[in-house]
Design brief:
Elements lengths: L2 H21 L3 H29 L5 E3 L14 E5 L10 E4 L8 E10 L6 E6 L23 E9 L4 H8 L1 H17 L3
Helix pairs in contact: 2-4, 3-4
């Protein structure tokens, strides 16, 4: 047997060691493992929906995707958001959506224009690492953000933890492979 055959037979044995427990599951064990996987997914969704209700933000956790807020926040930082009931003020860091754009933006509020006391406010933002305000990022003809554009205020962050999300988005096959491996571990667990 040559070196190549020895290597491929070793890989085949490792693959069999992962596949054999799955094949040997009886129907009851397979159903139990499927229910466990469903419970894990359901629990994650419930935690996400509960955090949306508690924070008042449509997305209570976001990842910084650009360097526009450096040195305050770096690419890959995870930000925690809370909408709150207080009015938005200059100096706060907010996450907002622009019409016709899918990716939210994290920038600092530099001006707030209140039309009437207690009424609608117009908000102008700027990235700390950018030279000008964000009017060039807003939708065509839009000069200000309104409350409907704001997803939440930044109330905390975890540095660099979101790099995993960025890598998964840059290499989608890695994301699917990781999900597959995690599902396999859940299915193969004996408990």
């Amino acid at each position: 047997m040559g070196a190549f055959e020895a290597l491929t037979s070793g890989i085949g044995e490792q693959a069999r060691s992962f596949i054999d427990p799955v094949v040997k599951l009886n129907k009851r064990q397979a159903l139990t493992q499927g229910v466990n996987l469903g419970l894990i997914i359901t629990s994650a969704l419930m935690i996400w929906k509960t955090s949306i209700l508690l924070t008042g933000s449509e997305s209570p956790v976001v990842v910084v995707l650009s360097g526009s807020m450096e040195p305050g926040f770096y690419r890959g930082d995870i930000l925690f958001l809370n909408m709150g009931h207080q009015p938005i003020r200059a100096g706060e860091i907010v996450v907002f959506n622009i019409d016709q754009r899918d990716i939210p933006i994290v920038h600092r509020v530099i001006k707030v224009h209140e039309r009437q006391p207690g009424g609608e406010v117009d908000i102008l933002t700027k990235g700390d690492n950018n030279h000008g305000d964000d009017r060039t990022l807003y939708a065509r003809g839009q000069l200000w953000l309104n409350q409907k554009h704001i997803m939440g205020r930044v109330v905390g962050f975890l540095p660099y933890v979101g790099q995993v999300t960025i890598i998964m988005n840059d290499y989608p096959y890695l994301k699917y492979a990781l999900i597959g491996v995690l599902a396999l571990f859940v299915i193969m667990s004996k408990e």
